Amino acid sequence: MTTHAKNASAEKTDVISLLTDDHKKVKKMFKDFEKMKGSGSDDELSALVEDICSELNLHAEAEEAIFYPAVREEITDTNLVDEAEVEHAELKELVSQLQSMSADDPKYKATVKVLGEYVDHHVKEEEGEIFPRVKKAKMDTEALGEEIANFKQMHGQPAPSARPARPNTGTGARKH
Ligand SMILES: [Fe+2]
Cα of 122 to ligand 1 centre, how many Å? Predict the structure, then answer.
């Protein structure tokens, strides 16, 4: 008889495990970048960075739309949520800078590095300060996890590296 199989599916939708998995995934992508940056081509680097950026945007949007408002109602220390939101704004600003840079930009690798540091900080604060309070508040972490999963499914897109290569659109200026 196995005793470890219980609640296997329930654990998957728990908001804390879901967000922690996101954190792990994106941290691994930054590690991959560190490994790749000495030898990878500009195309390989920018494909990975594009993946990192969409992963981070989706994670931040899901947290802002669903997780933070719910946490704000349940914990007394709402400063923590304010800080997280301000940090998200900075993170997204750096993501958009990176999205408009090309991989041969002299500051490209430095920008990825700084973004990785922001993410480390975000993960530390969230896992160290916010998640423990959420656990204590006895919030419905299953329902929240389900909402987050649905949100990500609706707003996510296939990883850019999995899409067929598209022509370089240059400055992105388009005629309407
Ligand atoms: Fe997070």
Answer: 6
**Residue 4: inside a domain, yes or no?**
no
**Domain that residue 86 falls in:** 14-157
The 3-state DSSP class for residue 37 equals coil
Dist. CA 120 → ligand 1 center (Å): 10
Q: How confident is residue 157, by pLDDT bands cut at 50, 70 and 90?
A: low
Which tokens hold the place of 32?
A: 């991959």
138 inside domain: yes
Do residues 44 and 36 lie in contact, with contact meaning Cβ atoms separated by under 8 Å?
Answer: yes
Identify the CA nearest to 74 among candidates 15, 133, 142: 133
Residue 33 domain-assigned (yes or no) = yes
Q: What's the CA-to-centroid distance between 20 and ligand 1, angstroms?
A: 7
| Ligand 1 centre distance from Cα of residue 125 (Å) | 9
- Whether 151 is in a domain gets the answer yes
- Our count of domains for the chain comes to 1
pLDDT 10s digits, 40-54: 999 999 999 999 999
Distance 167 CA to ligand 1 centre (A): 33
The pLDDT tens digits for 76-135 are 889 999 999 999 999 999 999 999 999 999 999 999 999 999 999 999 999 999 999 999
Q: Helices marked H in the chain — which ranges? A: 8-13, 15-36, 42-62, 68-74, 79-99, 108-125, 131-136, 141-155
